[in-house]
Amino acid sequence: MTTTATRPESSTRQHHLVGLVSAFGIGMLVAVQSRLNGELGGLLGDGIPAALISFGSGLLILLVATALVPRVRRGLGNVWRAIRTPMRGYGGLRWWQCIGGVAGAFLVATQSITVSVIGVAVFLVAGVAGQAISSLAMDRLGFGPAGPQPLTAVRIVGALVALVAVGLAVSEQLSHPDGLVLAVLPALAGVGTAVQQAINGRVARTASSDAYGAVAAGVVNFLVGFVALLLVFLVDLAVRGVPNALPNEPWLYLGGACGVIFISAAAAVVRVVGVFVLGLGTIAGQLIASLFIDVFLPVADKPVTTPVVAGTLLALAAVLIAAVPNLRGTP
Q: Which InterPro entries match (predicted)?
């Protein structure tokens, strides 16, 4: 009896652990993408075309995959049928659940606009607050494919500690209003990231129960985001004019490839562990990678200060606090 009863708990803990590890890798890719898009935006003198290039290259990769892999095309067909006939057994998907790419477009645009000024670490620590709180709300409302998740005291404490961490990390920006405003943008992007992960997970589940469903969700995400960014770019072009010439460094154009990997992976992982657990692991990966990037490959013209390091470590502590119940198999 005891052995049989403990097997499901052990399996649940293993799933959460694997989900956290996977999400950690996703978070590291987000940090790398922030670094790439931030420098590209700085060299172009405009973050919007940098974001458009990132999304456009990611969309191109996914369109090639769609052309070569029939199961991805079938998944996209399932999504289309679900939108057209939501009450006829195709998963109950609504059209607004397919616009997660708008949040992704805002994240990438924010990376390109702010990272070259405030640095990767401050950008990502600010995003922790929005993502942690928004993830709680998404899970509590059952917005993601894993269904409603309990709103426990430990989760709330973890989110509050993340807020304190953000305040500490951006404390030196308080005397510089421009820098503080820029720190608000990634916090809003973090809110959108949690929403994006939740609805992309639903799209992936509707497309297919296997990994190809996650790729199909990535196609939808990048297509919507690219269209949104293209419209913004046309307005930006009319107002600000032509950006600087494209840089020659090929590695600056890998942001889209990073996005393809972590958007598709997140759509798959969120179905197993929920929005909040995915957000925890993603945050941990972002925080650690961002510190290494700002120390060894800085893009902002400022050192990594003690408050930024302390805020990063505190935000990481918030992740661990909120993750403990899931690793123990308790709600």
A: YdcZ
